[in-house]
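User: For a reading group we're discussing how well predicted structures match intuition. Take Putative Zn-ribbon-containing protein involved in phosphonate metabolism. Before you show the prediction, I'll give you the sequence so everyone sees exactly what went in.
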Amino acid sequence: MSCALCAAETPLTPYEVTGAPAGLDAATEIALCSVCTDQVAGRPDPNHMRCLSSAMWSETPAVQVLAARLLARLSDHDWARDLWDQLWLDDETRAWVDAAPTISDHRDSNGAPLASGDSVVLIKDLPVKGAGFTAKRGTAVRNISLVADNSDHIEGRVDGQRIVILTKFVKKK
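Assistant: Thanks. Here is the predicted 3D structure of Putative Zn-ribbon-containing protein involved in phosphonate metabolism, as structure tokens, for the group to look at:
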């Protein structure tokens, strides 16, 4: 057996594709290699995910759904947008793709996923432009907000000021 996405002939682990419509006859579990499993859970490597060009045509709906979701996450790359434009899915499979849980690519300096409402700690002194102060290393920032269109930015309140902070300068608390 080979990985459902990249066709690697390595040990495989089962992966549950979530959000399947009620009463679906198709299987929701597929087999993925450890590389693909890690990338589905984290930030996908565009070079490795070029395998989606063949996986998206799989006859297994769960593979089609996962391939479509990954292409959507990689939409800042021309090749992924081109593949998305070529992808044809029936209405039931398209609904399954759209039922994806919201996945955030916001990650702290250690790669831990960040979510709105989390608390983080600054790992470096940061001069705050326009506010005239420096946010000191070790400062806790509670109840952060994620910047929707940029996974490298979060917002939080430091010294009473709402500021934008680069995720590479924070550690999840």
